Amino acid sequence: MPGDVKLKFPSPEPMKVIGRPNQIKTSKYTWLNFLPKNLYEQLHKFANSYFLVISTIMYLGEKTPLYVGTIRAFSTVGVLVMMMA
Known about the structure:
The protein is mainly α. It is built from three helices and no strands. It has helices at about 35-45, 45-65, 75-85. Helix 2 (about 45-65) packs antiparallel against helix 3 (about 75-85). About 0% of the residues are buried.
């Protein structure tokens, strides 16, 4: 009949994706790379690297007879943790 419209429906078989799927990834971190990437980003800042080095030297001074210090290493580690938070 002249007024009939025929519709074509897709087959029920799933289509195979060729290449990479069309997805958007908006997250910077995953469960596996969070710690290494975050430490890398934080230690790029000079102040954070400085406090890490100073804290390590102070910790060595507490545990070995290299020098006598009046400030404990945990105080500079505390500052580093606050700056990285």
